[in-house]
């Protein structure tokens, strides 16, 4: 290559999809529409699952179909996240205890299978609860003392015998809590043993710091689920449940970017570069 044709480059030119001027406006509107639909779709899901839409409404009415969809999505999300936290605990155990074989042990196929199993379990559990709850013929009231449709509240309003529904709810919730808690405890037990073998105090602190936020998310989620779904309820416990539910419907989503993104070294470095370029440009 002729060296006189080479030069130092500080920026690049992106040609995009087409140089044709008549297509620029069309492509701009096309992709703007796509991204707009994506944003509004995500906002719609947030409003559907959580209590944001209900806060703004004068009447707090929700149709039976909307309530069913909300219940299905919420149940699927909670069960999936519970199992996913256990899978993440195992992933961190492998990363800390056997780092040299991490890429072999946690292969791409295995990761896809584990994530698929998390979503499959969440879907199956929500479908089971949904099918049982749809068989309830009548309710003594249509007023739900909550900001979304939750299973214990719905069962407490039923006129018919819902013993089977309650038994399935407590069995599935307790079984999921036991299995995931055992996986988490065993993973972090070996993780702790490995940390204690590290001679450098700085390295021990760094290793523990990488998992401290994950443990905080587990404590909040598992604790509230134990209170709401696995603990015997009294007639005056609904307000406690409503407050506890805020933690895993509002607090954990707020913490997720801090736990899984902003604490990541590569993300922080990219953010630092963007901020620096904006300041000095």
From TrEMBL:
What the entry lists under Gene3D superfamilies is as follows:
Rhodopsin 7-helix transmembrane proteins (1.20.1070.10)
Which topology term describes how it sits in the membrane? Answer: Multi-pass membrane protein
- Keyword Endoplasmic reticulum appears in the UniProt entry: no
**Keywords annotated in UniProt:** G-protein coupled receptor, Membrane, Receptor, Transducer, Transmembrane, Transmembrane helix
A single GO BP? G protein-coupled receptor signaling pathway
Q: Which residues form the G-protein coupled receptors family 1 profile domain?
A: 1-260
Q: Extract the Pfam families matched here.
A: 7tm_4 (PF13853)
* Residue intervals passing through the bilayer: 25-49, 69-90, 110-132, 178-196, 208-231, 243-262
Compartments annotated for it: namely: Membrane
Q: Which GO terms describe its cellular component?
A: membrane
**Where mainly located?**
membrane
User: Which PROSITE patterns has this protein been placed in?
Assistant: G_PROTEIN_RECEP_F1_1, G_PROTEIN_RECEP_F1_2
Q: Tell me, what is one Gene Ontology molecular-function annotation carried by this entry?
A: G protein-coupled receptor activity
Asked whether the UniProt record includes Transferase among its keywords, one would answer no
Q: What does this protein do?
A: Putative odorant or sperm cell receptor.
The protein, known as: G-protein coupled receptors family 1 profile domain-containing protein
Q: Which organism is it from?
A: Bos taurus (Bovine)
């Amino acid at each position: 290559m002729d060296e006189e044709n080479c030069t130092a480059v500080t920026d690049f030119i992106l040609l995009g999809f087409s140089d044709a001027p008549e297509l620029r406006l069309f492509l701009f509107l096309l992709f703007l529409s796509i991204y707009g639909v994506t944003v509004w779709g995500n906002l719609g899901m947030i409003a559907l699952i959580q209590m944001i839409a209900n806060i703004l409404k004068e009447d707090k009415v929700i149709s039976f179909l909307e309530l069913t969809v909300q219940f299905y999505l919420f149940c699927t999300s909670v069960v999936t996240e519970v199992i996913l936290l256990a899978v993440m605990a195992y992933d961190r155990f492998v990363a800390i205890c056997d780092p040299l074989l991490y890429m072999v042990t946690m292969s791409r196929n295995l990761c896809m299978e584990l994530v698929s199993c998390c979503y499959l379990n969440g879907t199956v559990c929500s479908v089971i609860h949904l099918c049982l709850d749809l068989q309830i013929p009548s309710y003594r009231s249509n007023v739900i003392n909550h900001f979304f449709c939750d299973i214990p509240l719905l069962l407490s309003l039923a006129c018919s015998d819902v013993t089977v529904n309650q038994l399935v709810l407590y069995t599935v919730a307790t079984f999921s809590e036991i299995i995931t808690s055992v996986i988490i405890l065993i993973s972090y037990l070996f993780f702790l043993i490995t940390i204690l073998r590290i001679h450098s105090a700085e390295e021990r602190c760094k290793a523990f710091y990488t998992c401290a936020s994950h443990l905080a998310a587990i404590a909040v989620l598992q604790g509230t689920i134990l209170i709401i779904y696995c603990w015997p309820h009294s007639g005056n416990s609904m307000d406690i449940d409503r407050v506890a539910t805020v933690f895993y419907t509002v607090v954990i989503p707020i913490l997720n970017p801090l736990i899984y993104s902003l604490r990541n070294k590569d993300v922080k470095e990219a953010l630092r570069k963007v901020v620096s370029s904006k300041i000095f440009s």
